[in-house]
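Ex. 9. Protein: Radical SAM protein.
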Amino acid sequence: MQAEGEHLKGRGAQKNIANKFDKHQHEIRADFLNYCAHEGDEPQNLKTLFIDTFPKSIVNKVESPDVGMGFSLNPYQGCEHGCVYCYARNSHEYWGYDAGLDFESRILVKRNAVQLLEAYFMRKSYKAAPIVLSGNTDCYQPAEKEFQITRRLLETFYKYRHPVGIITKNALIQRDLDIIRELAKCNLIQVNMSITSLEEKTRRLLEPRTASIKKRLETVKKLSEAGVPVNVMTAPIIPGINSHEVLPLIKAAADHGARSVGYTVVRLNGAIAGIFEDWLKTAMPDRADKVLNQIAACHEGNLNDSQFGRRMRGSGEFATQIKAQVELGRKKYLKGRGIDPLDCSLFEKYRPGQLSLF
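Predicted structure tokens for Radical SAM protein:
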């Protein structure tokens, strides 16, 4: 049983938290913890549960101008990777779960994702535009090893020669290199690999169930050697935790074949602020106040900023320093590299019922 003040290993969030939509709230009382300790029981079930869902739609239009995508598709809701800073945690509350431990232990599996995607393609008025897998939660999280929904989606994208992007921090993507290579030959895919730190200790604390840094860099190299355009997301940059690694991260990305890099500055919106603070005080108690103060310095004195155009990059001295480091790294290590726009012209030729005049 977890002792008070002890970091809960293997999870990002350290506890369940209240769902803002619930009428009733609950808390774990000290007398209940004492009872569990006496009986040798765990006070909460941390085993991951996979819950089948059958949504009515699968492609989401992205309204935010800050995230660099027009449409997203998420085969899973919730993410077992357990990244403590993840902005997607808040979305779990809409499903009746909490943004803390529920987010990483109650995974919704969209069983009909492929059928919904094909139906989306068949709409007469539809015009091809890149769809990004993992706009919210990682399409290559551990659940994918069993359910293989992402692989079947990629096969569908290739069947219709439709452009697709991927955001992931899991080396499991290497399993699908065969289909990804074919998509790349037609300029139909771009992969965004998230690498937040080069220090394995930091990675284990921030992102407890993700692939190791070594495996992620290896994945960037293998994809790049296969002709797949790879962008490395050094995101989020967290002042006082990984902000000293900006240049080394960009160099490592370039050395392994990445064509570009992106970044964001961490912001703790919604329930994430409480989750992150609780995690920080157990995982890094010696620097908790410093980190929180520096994050606030990037967001007008707050832990979160919701203003479009500013929220993902921050403002103030720390944010300006981070931006300058990223620009320097791009000039120094990625000069002459870039990623071309994906090809949207092939789709009409491969969609059933579409006749060509030539």
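Check your answer against this statement. The chain is about 35% helix and 15% strand.
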